[in-house]
Structure formats: C-alpha cells, structure tokens
C-alpha cells in the first residue's frame, strides 16, 4: 500500500487542480497511474469520482472533475486529504477538516444540524455531562457497580473454593 497526504492551500483551491507529490510518483511508479484516476471517498454519493491525470513541468495533477469533487465535499484550504493507492489508478480517500476530524458526508447530505445519522436528536446537555463524568474523559467519575448475576456469583464461589479458600474468602485449614 502506498499513501500520500495533501494539505489543501489557498493556492491549490485557486488552481482548481491537485498536484500529486512527485515523490509519490517516483515511489509508486508512473506506469501504475493512467486515466481516469478514480477516487473512492469513505462516504458519499457518488461512491467514485473519475479525474483526469495531467502532466506538466511540475508533475502530475488531478484536474477535470477536481473542482466538482471539492465543491461536493465542501473542501477548503486548511483541509487534509489522505490518499491510499489501491491499484489501477484507484485511490481510497479519507478527508479531514482543518480541525483534524474526518469529514463524514458531502455537504448535500446534511439535513438536520444536531442530529445523528438516524435523524435522532442528540440530548447535548445530558451527553456532555455523561462524557465529562466518565473516567476516560478525565472527569473522575466512576462507573456504577455492575449487578452480579446469580450465575456469576456461583462461578466466583466455585473458583474461590478451588483455590483453597472458603466461600466467604477465608483460607481452609488442614484437617487432621
């Protein structure tokens, strides 16, 4: 597998085309890249985007179709794109916002801000409190004790007696 990461700059967005790093071409080999180049975003519609590969003095570019792709996914300067070369001019593409969080859906897919994918409302205040109180988030909160089932209690007692302990945790003495 071969990868390259692109940081979208104002220049890139103004040029309306994307330069493939020359180092990637050297490492991957020019023979592996032919027209059309297919991008497979992790999500979105359409699942594939065909772009024209174009060569000039600076290197190989993705153009015809690039601007439409950037518009569909609301890409702006500051975004990052991780390209994973699959084979036969196909790339899996993961898109990240300027904040480093992956872009989940194209702009046309957003319907309700504050909703999850199933259009269920997030209880923001409750969720924030739940996260803040979790030990993982550093909130110092403790997980509630899990109730022990009767089967679980029997298994614990059995294991304790096999290790030479009584059911109440004490040691069994030797009998004479």
Automatic annotation (TrEMBL):
The keyword tRNA-binding does not apply. Residues 3-99 form the TF-B3 domain. Keywords: DNA-binding, Nucleus, Transcription, Transcription regulation. Its main location: nucleus. One of its GO terms (cellular component) is nucleus. It is found in: Nucleus. Residues 165-176 have a biased composition (Basic and acidic residues). Residues 110-121 have a biased composition (Polar residues). InterPro entries: B3_DNA-bd, DNA-bd_pseudobarrel_sf, Plant_B3_domain. Residues 110-176 are annotated as: Disordered. One of its GO terms (molecular function) is DNA binding. The keyword Coiled coil does not apply. It comes from the Eukaryota. This is TF-B3 domain-containing protein. It comes from Linum trigynum.
């Amino acid at each position: 597998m071969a990868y390259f990461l692109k940081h979208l700059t104002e220049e890139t967005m103004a040029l309306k085309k994307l330069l493939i790093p020359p180092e990637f071409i050297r490492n991957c080999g020019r023979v592996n890249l032919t027209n059309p180049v297919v991008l497979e975003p992790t999500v979105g519609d359409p699942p594939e985007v065909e772009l024209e590969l174009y060569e000039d003095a600076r290197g190989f570019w993705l153009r015809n179709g690039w601007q439409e792709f950037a518009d569909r996914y609301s890409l702006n300067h500051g975004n990052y794109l991780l390209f994973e070369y699959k084979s036969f001019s196909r790339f899996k593409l993961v898109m990240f916002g300027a904040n480093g969080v992956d872009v989940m859906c194209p702009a046309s897919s957003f319907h309700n801000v504050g909703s999850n994918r199933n259009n269920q409302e997030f209880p923001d205040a409750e969720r924030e409190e739940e996260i803040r109180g979790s030990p993982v988030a550093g909130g110092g909160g403790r997980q509630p004790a899990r109730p022990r089932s009767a089967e679980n209690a029997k298994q614990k007692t059995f294991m304790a007696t096999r290790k030479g302990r009584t059911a109440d945790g004490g040691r069994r003495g030797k009998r004479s």
